[in-house]
Task: structure prediction
Amino acid sequence: MASRPDLPPVVRHVEEVRRQLEPLRAQGERIGFVPTMGALHPGHLSLVDVCSRECDATVVSIFVNPTQFGPNEDYEKYPRNLQKDLELLAPYGVDLVFAPEVEEIYPPGFGTYVEAQGVTEHWEGRSRPGHFRGVATVVTKLFLIVQPHVAYFGHKDYQQSVVIRQVVRDLNIPVEIRVCPTVREEDGLAWSSRNAYLSPEERQQALVLWQSLQLAQQLIHSGQQDPRTVLAQMKHLYDQHPAVRLDYVGLVDPDTLLPVERITGPVVALVAAWVGQTRLIDNLRIEPPH
Result:
């Protein structure tokens, strides 16, 4: 009978993370880092898998960051199950899991925040004021604590990855940012920790997010260059799903996240929608025909 892989070691304190990683850094080992909020699913695990294959040491953080949740969002009910997360990580040879308490990251008197401008002002930034300030702050702190050579993020949170690239560039943080493909369930729904909130009926309704992105791709691949036409068709699809409340849909420049006037190069189709009480996001990078 095969033995189960050991659970990765959990570290709770900043100084202990540094103490354990310093010898690896001194030996010239390449340290990879996957920041998460836990409730791990195949999307997260795909990042851990790539990290473990590309780096000598793999660090995963599990921290539900309160500063990126708005006052009416799901911080309190966000799923937390550290034991299950550790069991999911066990097969990947993770060297260290950093799972701090909130006070370790935001001690009494904390008052310093990182705020990226420009790429945060539309889409998620408009729908969730303060969200990216919380993201930029916690990711910067985690980078300073772990000091990885490479950090791995998922394409599903596309705007987040653009924000983090800007923070790293603007603050001269010496870490390479790797953005890996979105992992989807068999029917196309992007894996998300929030999928667990969906009832079976809502889960079925949620497929319209992926269907709308596929529709945009189909239209652009067929030669449509007018973003207004594509967006109108996408919105019409949502009109046929009254249980789904569209937050936004956009066709944007992959670097600036600004809406495109004409589809002549790569674009990213972005969508956010409420399915019942659950807010989901998704996106797809689309290349027009040459």
The first helix runs from residue 14 to 26.
